[in-house]
Write the C-alpha cells for this entry.
Amino acid sequence: MPAKKQKPILEYPAFFEPIEEGGYNVSFPAFPGCVTFGCTFEQAQEKAKEVLELWLEELAQTKKEIPIVKSRPVIADIKVVAPPKTKLTYASHNR
C-alpha cells in the first residue's frame, strides 16, 4: 500500500484582543480581514482555527499564494512614568 502523503502543517501568529464587553477579537497579521470573535479565550482559539482554515481553503481554491510566516511579531510592555497632571483613561486597543 503506498504511503499517504502528509499535508504540511502551517502556523500563523494570531492577536487575541480582550474586549470591554467580554470575549476576544482575533486577527491574523498575515491575513488582513481574516477576523473572528470568541466569548472565552478557548472559544476564540477554536474560532480562530476555523476561520483560518476557511481563509486558507479559499486562497487555495482561487489559486492564490499562501504566505509562509518566517518571523513572529514581538509584543512587549514598555514602562514609562506618566507626565505630571496627566489625565489617564483606560481605552481599548483599536486598530
Notes: The domain at 1-95 is CATH 3.30.160.250 (Double Stranded RNA Binding Domain). The helical segments are 41-61.
